[in-house]
Each structure stands twice: as C-alpha cells, then as structure tokens.
Design a protein that fits this description.
This protein is α/β, with parallel strands linked by helices. It has 14 helices and eleven strands. The N and C termini lie far apart (about 140 Å).
Length: about 400
Amino acid sequence: MDQCCPPPPLSLLCAILLCLPLAVIFTFTAPSATTSAAVSGGAATSPLPFTIPPPFTNHTTNTSQARKTLPHPKIKNLTAAAAATAAAAAADEAEDQILLNLASRVDPSPRPVKKLAFMFLATTSLPHAPLWEQFFSRAAAERYNIYIHAAADFAVPSGGAFANRTVPSRPTRRNTPTLIAAARRLLAHALLDDGANAVFALLSPSCVPLHSFGYTYRVLTKSRRSFVEILSNEPGAWERWAARGEHAMLPEVGFGDFRIGSQFWAVKRKHARVIVRDKRLWAKFQVACLRDDTCYPEEHYFPTLLSMVDPRGCTPCTLTHVDWRGSRGGHPRTYVADEVGPELIRALRRSRPRYGDEEVRSDGSNSSVTVVAGDRRRRHDPFLFARKFSPGALHRLLEIANDVIFKD
C-alpha cells in the first residue's frame, strides 16, 4: 500500500487562507435561535441584544405571556369610562329619537284656536319669572302653553304659570350640540302636548317681554312665516363651517349652504315638524368641534336647516333683540338695573330687526338696525322680546311693567 505524503507547508497555508473568509461570513450572517424566534413571533425588531428582558415581564422572557398577566389598568379604566359615556350618549339619543319620531307624525295644521308655545331653555332658575307671570296673567289660558327645559339643579316653581311645566331634560353645555338637542326636545314635547300650538318661541332665562301678551299673540299668529335669522356672509363663516374639520360637513352641508343666525327664534308648526324629523343635518351637527372659539352649533343648525328646506317660508330675522356692542367671551351686553327705564324699553321697541344679509347700520348691533325716517320700503317687524337682562334688573322692570312694557 502506498503511503500518503503530507502536503507541503505552502499548500496548507493557501488552504487556510481560502477557508478563513467563509468562516467570517457564516459567523456574521447566521441568525441566532433567539432572533429567529422573536421574528417569527411577531415582536418588534430591536437593536438591543435580546438577552436583556423587556420591562414588566414578571421575570420571564415570554413577552406575549407578560402582556396577558400584567395589563395596564389605567388605559383599561379610561377605555371603560369612554365606552360607558358613549353607551349612555347612544341610549339618550335613542330615547330622544323615539320622542322625535312621535312628534314628527302630528298634524301639521294647528287647531282653529291657535296657541303660542313659550319654550324656556333654562339653567338654575327663571330670574324674571315674576314679570312673565304678569305677562301671562293678562292672557286667556287657551291662548298659550309654557315648556321649560332645565338643568338638574333647576328651582322648580311651586305655583303660578310655570308650575309643573318642566319637560324631561338633559344637561346642556355651550359650544356643543346639546343646546340643539334641548331645543328639539322642547319642540317635540310641545308638538305632542297640544295640537293647538301654532307658533313655538324659544327663549332664554334672561329674556323679557317688550309688549303685552295680546300684542305678541297678534304678531305671531297673523304671520304666515317663521321668524328665523338667516345670515350667509358673516365674518368668520368659513371657520365656523370648518370647525369640525374642513370636510366634516360634506356632502350634506356645503359651505354655500351654511348659515348663521340667532339662537332664539319663533317657528310655525310646519317648521317645528321639519326640525324634529330631521336626521340628515342633525347627524352632521352632532360631530364634535375641534376648537371652541368657532363652534356655536345652536347658531348654525336651525338657520341652515330651514334655509335649505323652506327659505321662502321664513322671515330672515329674529324678534328677540340683543346688543353685541361690548360683548365679552361670545356673550352679548347685559342690561343692569341702572340702565332699565321707560327710555330703554321704547328704544328697543323702535329698533328695527336685521333681515338676512342686510348691512348692519348705525347702532352697531348685529340683531337690529336703526329705522330710517321716511323709508317705508323696508320691513319693520317689531321686536317682541329682548335679552340679556340681569337678575338684579327685575325690580326696575316690575316698576315700569304696567305703564310701559304692557302698554302698547
């Protein structure tokens, strides 16, 4: 048998040099068992060595098991609270929808003896209730109804015209659609309560009458139209339309359809039915705004809806006077006791409502313009109500009630 000769030293050296690069490549490219397991398990890749355990693992490197055994209670509690809030809101909306559906089916024509529905959107009290009591005491009971939407801490009157007139209510908050929902709820109850209700006037606790009941009744029942302020070219209109996002209102409410107006109006029975049966626009105005300083849903929903449905059936003005000169935080001027007297009431009566996009004139108020002497081509519907009057002004109002306010 032949014996093998050992390879020469030079050949052996060459073989070692040829194998060395392959060993280096294999060492740096072959994945470790730990890395393969992590990738196949779906865990996020990390530049850190996998020998360092993830935090909060209960001394185990099985991260999927760690997530099961150590939940994050704070996140879960927040989620549960949000879910509970959403569920409660959905239940409230479903309950309201039943009410609204019933109200939308009532007879659109009022009974022969027409009534006025006075709807107060109240908070803790009605500070001017004694003045309103005198207002209603001069009216026949078959000519009016009163409805109050109130906060939970509302002081329910124990007697008089306002006793037992509170409807089932829910909390309201400014800059939210809760104020729209409250007005729709008032309309629904008023429609279902009495088939004779022909005109529905929305009022605030700071509102006071400027005329007698008889005068107010004649103006509202003789008109064939609703009184709803409808403005389209107001400064900041685009920001208000886009308050929920630039495309949030589309396609139901394009910017060209968007309108602004006073929160307080007086609508005929047919328009009350339009409001309670609407679902299409209500779904858009329910969306929360991204910022509060451009979000006033109660000033947008009603003028937008009625402008889209029946603009010719509306006189585009409000019959509730308000003065925006010197306003603060989005609130109009408040009349205090020292300002109240016969001159103020007569001045408010002489003021002329602003109609649609009519130019604001010399008095600087967004809801009225000064009457131009001798100009008989213009409408001049009378203001029937005015706000805001402070609670402290009540005694001055009562002093001039008989001789001024209720004397037409």
